[in-house]
User: Fold these one by one.
Assistant:
Number 1:
Amino acid sequence: MAGFFEKLAAGLTKTRDKFVKGIDNVFNGYTSIDDDFYEELEEVLIMGDIGVNATSTIMDRLREHVREQHITDPEKCRALLLQDIWQQMKIDEHAYDFEDKKTIIFVIGVNGVGKTTSVGKLAAIFKNKGKKVIIAAADTYRAAATEQLVEWADRAGAPIITGREGADPASVIYDATSAFKARDCDILIVDTAGRLHNKKNLMEELAKMNRIIDKELPGICRENFIVLDGTTGQNAIMQAREFGDVADLTGIILTKLDGTAKGGIAVAIVSELNIPVKYVGVGEGIDDLERFSPAEFVDALFLDSVEKK
Amino acid sequence: MAFESLTDKLQNIFKNLRSKGVLTEEDVKVALKEVKMALLEADVSFKVVKQFVSSVEKRAIGEGVLNGLNPGQMVIKIVNEEMISLMGSDTTEIALLPINEITVIMMCGLQGSGKTTTAAKIAGKLKLKGRKVLLAACDIYRPAAIDQLRINAQKQGVDFFSMGTDVSAVEIAKASVEYARKNQDNVVIIDTAGRLQIDEAMMQELVDIKNNVAVNQSLLVVDAMTGQDAVNVATQFNEKVGIDGIILSKMDGDSRGGAALSAKAVTGKPILYVGMGEKLSDLEQFYPDRMASRILGMGDVLSLIDKAIEANAEMDAQKEKEMAQKMKKGKLDFEMYLESMKQMRNMGGLGAIMNMLPGMGRISDDQLPDEKELARLEAIVLSMTPQERKNPKLMTPQRKYRIAKGSGNDIAAVNRFIKQFDQMQKMMKQMPGLFGGKKRGMGGLGGLGRFSGKNKFF
């Protein structure tokens, strides 16, 4: 499967613009490691949405390594920095074991991050692997959310359990868990309505859905994915924290990485909350959801332009 | 995570400095470093921060420190003023043509920024102004986007136009204006598909719509949670398509909303409205002063005061007078408690209030008294007779027993509540001055401060 970076380059209609000034410029412009050099490095990290805190942690570590290893060459410093972030973003080798087990995937996040689209894409991935997939459309709030997911389910060729608009989403979950048992499915993917993490009632509603799944399907492997918009800034940390209180998050789906946003906030979240990024969304096609590749992510974070690659 | 507001931080830095007459370069530098961090934490674009901070620096050095302020506060004051002037505009409304002409509004933005919802919200707003609005569905890409708009148009009671997904967005836009003419609509709101600012073909679609339809207002919807990319998005939409105004969506979240500053700074286009919730009525005016406080993490005190005034307006004047009188005398009864609870709910609940207070921006829900707990306490009061409410001293074990039964609590809960109430009454007697505020609205708030205080009461 082509990496998301190649796919990016292949998208001829999309060009990266000059304003995406990358780290290469920083490295090319310096012959020695000094304060200006560090400062500019810091800028690149902050402009990638890594955030003030995570950036200063990373920079402190970098300075220390540079001191310890007596590095004077900016190029080596670059390798060190990339290595460091890569190390942090690395995923466990068992991260995708659930794909071959009986699994319930609970997909949650704030409004407009791409939950429904991601659910459709996940269904297609598992369907292509020959799994028996079933989808639960538990977003009964947003107008036409169910219709949107039905369309995706059609494209993926997976059956879908729906409820009326305005119905209690918990009832959809209940129906879906029953169907999952009765039809002996492999994977149940639950789409939920987008909600801001500071709305207590809506978060309670989510917790209730979570409890129903636990109760109806005990002992079955669970994955709770938070979907984060790659263009989101520091607020994503709050999102991950609050949603993590509702259900133990096992992974992040990072969407909208086909634009100019770098999704650097994921670095901050991984370093602060240790939730791995498992999938990335790189387009609107049904196949545009891929397993997360730390190496490509770090490259993209620091690369000037597609053409350069 | 303990949250230290910018004001607190600066207060600490300048603890040992007394106001020295004028701001020195050193004062300004130290303070601006913190300001810079706060702005970056709020997701204001790095480049905008740099420019902004350097312009503030120039203005601030040598400026006289006002009486009663320390240098840090003075810098904040200047920063605040500069931000307000940067974010504010003379334009605060969508420019509409006279009522006998058709105003065409085009929505644009990234995927998931909230265009469709915002389109419906604007439609409702303009309908209230007496316009006849048509919502035109030009998102032919996202599954069910058309259905979403149709349902929202129904809910808002405005007209709806669609040609399915087989016709190009440009054709639909053209036809919608024709339809509006026949249907006597005088506003057409074109909802377009979400698109990336670097997707040339999709950006061209917007340009084509503008070339074929006389679009009067192109509005860019920006998610308040957007990070550093906000600058790229705003710049590109403005350069390629040309925008007339910005709408910030999802402001009911707890993001600091630095994207507002970035988008305004790079485009110079006015921020018109903010989206405050999922209900179709939740579209509010943009206030640069409130936004500045929010970005700086100083809480939205102004909004709070506003809400207090609003909530108070519902309480009739006579009642308010009585309440203020009682408070002055340090007399607190259960009726006042009920009234305060009602006011609090009118202001959006305790959580909403806390979020607007400086330094409380990041208080989490579990640090607040549970709303259910509050409801239980309210039930206790509601189970009292009017006499008991007015005169807490009447309480006897028999009465308490009856109240407990009536409100579904055990007697211990009732005892606890009444005891805490007593304590609070004593406290109020000790500081009557605190509650005798002259300003409308603050009387109620003073009381609220007690109720929401650090678990004293609960």
Number 2:
Amino acid sequence: MAHAHGNAPSPSESMEAFLNGLWKQNPVFVQVLGMCPTLAVTNSARNAAAMGLATIFVLVCSNTLISLVRKLVQKQVRIATYILIIATFVTMVDYIIKAVSVDVYKALGPFIALIVVNCIILGRAEAFASKNSVGKSILDGLGMGLGFAIALFCLGGVREILGAGTLFGVSLFGPNFQPWVLFLLPSGGFFTLAGWLLIFTWWKERKKRMAEAQQ
Amino acid sequence: MNESSLGAIFLDSLLINNFVLSVFLGICPFIGVSNKFETAWRMGVSVIFVILVSSVLAFGTNLLLINFHAEYLRIITYIVIIASTVQLVEMFIKKTSPALFRALGIYLPLITTNCAVLGVALFQTARNYSFAQSVVFALGSSMGFTLALVIMAIIRERLELSDIPGTAKGTALVLMIAGTLSLAFMGFAGMGGGG
């Protein structure tokens, strides 16, 4: 993480593509993309995990296919092509989730279909998969998807622990815990994400200050 | 909740279940375009128009899809409808008002990936709204989006000159304001016949 951005040759470019999305360019905490699902489905850790998995699947599949056809697609119609490819995979996920767990399907509702308009996916298609080899695009999709899923889990976990006193439905604090219901409500989503962003900004600024002090 | 009456649907989508503040749709433009009142207002008006047109088209297409038993094509057709509506609106604005076209700039094509637009189309299908209900729902939710966007823009214009700790500047601040606004909008929950 300490090496200079872009100057020093990294040990392995593929690893770089993977780690980039996981941390340095984390879609939620650094790029602030894909806010709608991030806030809407994170009222419990289970929903957050399901949404994270669905997004990883769509992201990896669409990155793979877009990278495969990148030389065939005309420049003018590329966005439309990408959206159609993404919509196809989202339809698949929609039906898979319905088949696997009706509970999760009901909890996530239209937000599964709304993965189509998740800017992270179209963003990666345009910024990475349309310019890079299949292998690297898959790794990029995995990294970005995992980064997104981790961010969702950070939010969902905090909201479930504070708002209901449970994690994945398991009670953490015993029967005397007074749940902080605010965190399950929509405003809790905004506040939790704001809190995480504050922590990350504070940490980054602190690192910068320490680097300056060393010089 | 009384879903059948048109007035209840309108109130519900405009205030009680405001798209931005309680259903979390259209957060990206809400954060991105809300730093100036002028742009926020114009963006809001174009979104109202796009949502209305695409909602009507989506309603018709859905009937067609059900007729041919091709519901699995729903997501794909909806996104194509929205993309073409946005394109139409773009051409229309470019012809009639080049000044507005320049002012909106990049935000206009970005309406395609505004999840509120697809959200309206998907919700009206999922809830089996009739045609009149769909139109009222589209009107209410798009106006709710614009309302939230404009309120946020006004607050942010006011905050521009105030002394905010550097760590909280930017997105974190917007999210905190949004959380507070969302709390305030919860006050509407009792309206419209004991929601």
